[in-house]
């Protein structure tokens, strides 16, 4: 049994442990996210403060979601979407414009 097989077998239990920690230690996790964001902001001399604040807010939202419902994912998103439903007529770059 390979590493990934072992991990897949343990994943549900690990997720439950993470959700439990998110519920019981939410304030400490939130404080840690804030400290990390402050450290990164200081290291970048405030150049990326908006992005850092946005990332910290998303991290907090993720922890809150994990604490509330065990981190159930939202609607599935295909990481490799196919072509658009109606991409229009194919265009040959070697041809001139259609008349």
Question: How does this model look, in words?
Answer:
By secondary structure, the protein is an all-alpha fold. The chain has a domain at 10-69. Helices cover 62% and strands 0% of the residues. It has 3 helices and no strands. It has helices at 3-24, 26-43, 49-69. Helix 1 crosses helix 3. It is flat and about 65 Å long.
Helices, strands, pairings?
Elements: H1 3-24, H2 26-43, H3 49-69
Helix pairs in contact: 1-3, 2-3
Brief sketch in words of this structure:
By secondary structure, this protein is mostly helical. 62% of the residues lie in helices and 0% in strands.
Structural class: mainly alpha
| Number of helices, where a helix is a run of at least 4 consecutive DSSP H or I residues | 3
What's the order of the H and E elements? Answer: HHH
Kindly, what is the distance between the CA atoms of the first and last residues, rounded to a whole number of angstroms? Answer: 63 Å
Name some characteristics of this structure.
0% strand; flat; mainly alpha; single chain; 3 helices
């Amino acid at each position: 049994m390979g590493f990934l097989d072992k991990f897949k077998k343990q994943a549900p239990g690990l997720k439950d442990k993470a959700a439990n920690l998110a519920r019981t230690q939410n304030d400490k996790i939130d404080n840690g996210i804030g400290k990390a964001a402050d450290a990164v902001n200081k290291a970048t001399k405030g150049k990326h403060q908006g992005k850092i604040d946005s990332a910290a807010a998303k991290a907090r939202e993720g922890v809150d979601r994990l604490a509330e419902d065990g981190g159930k994912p939202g609607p599935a998103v295909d990481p490799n979407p196919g072509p658009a439903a109606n991409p229009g007529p194919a265009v040959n770059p070697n041809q001139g414009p259609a008349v």
